[in-house]
Amino acid sequence: MQRNEAGRRPDPPEDADGAADLYRALGKQLKLLRERAGMTQKDVGDRLGYGEDLISSLERGRRTPQPEFLDAADELLGAGGLLKAAKEDVARAKAKARVRHPAWFRDYARLEGDAVEVNDYSSHDIPGLFQTEQRTRALYEMRKPLLDEETIEQRVVSRLARQEILIRWPPPLVTAVIEESVLRRPIGGREVHKGQLEQLLQLGQLRNVEVQVMPMDRTEHAGMGGPFILLTPKGKPQVGYVEVQNITRLATDTEEVRILAARYGSIRAQALTPRESLALIERMQAER
């Protein structure tokens, strides 16, 4: 691999998706504007308080242009608002580029993004589609072995991005049965947990979302085999998804999926109704 003048490998693009095309286009505009103004990369860097190397990387589309840079460069180079107008596009591109699901989860995430129905039985945690940012972050921060800060941030952003399916149109039907014990465990601390209960109450008011609680006093329970999700992608057969101890499995066998669907039906019948469940969550929140 070639190295640059300083003996370092060339800076890699900060993303490998459509954002790279946007950054390259902006880089070409920046170069044309700079040359039209009769300035060198060093001139621009000195005037704006940046290094020459950074200006070079920006012009080659190798770095993400920050909003403050676009504002300052627009004024300096007389761009007439051309660079400033790109700030929203850059923000959207950055947000999209940060969505990085782990490799073992990508197949499910793609199916979920096109789902018309999601049914989730959760025995250990709040479903990812319902989690607050604070709870999600707490979960990843306590993960063992430890995750680095960059990975935590990527995982948080990616999980929150999945929740967009709840408010798109037309939205999928989303049902969830959550164990009462999960709702009583204050993951992340009391305030974080209180915020999570509030979010469940808000989501439970959506017409396409049904939240049910499996009370701890049940003497019969069809879900003792563990958590699972039933997912129906648009125009495709229903599939099952199981995840435990970072071991995942996407079930597509018709008979296996049928059994999971029958089991989920029993679990829902044994749980509190959606109205009873929201009332219980309200009482839990009042206790805190």
Question: Runs with pLDDT <50, length 5+?
Answer: 1-16
Topology as H/E string?
HHHHHHEHHEHHEEEEHH
Number of contiguous helices: 12
* Percent range of helical residues: 40-55%
Number of strands: 6
Order of strands, main sheet, comes to: 3-2-1-4-5-6
Rounded average pLDDT: 89
Major sheet characteristics? 6 strands, mixed
Gap from first CA to last CA: 59 Å
What global shape is seen?
Answer: elongated
Q: Specify the structural class.
A: alpha/beta
Strand content: 5-15%
How large is the radius of gyration?
24 Å
Care to describe what's here?
The protein has 288 residues and is of the alpha/beta class. It has helices spanning 18-36, 41-48, 52-59, 67-76, 87-97, 106-113, 133-141, 149-162, 180-184, 190-203, 254-270, 274-287; strands at residues 115-122, 173-179, 209-214, 228-233, 239-244, 247-251. The chain has a six-stranded mixed sheet.
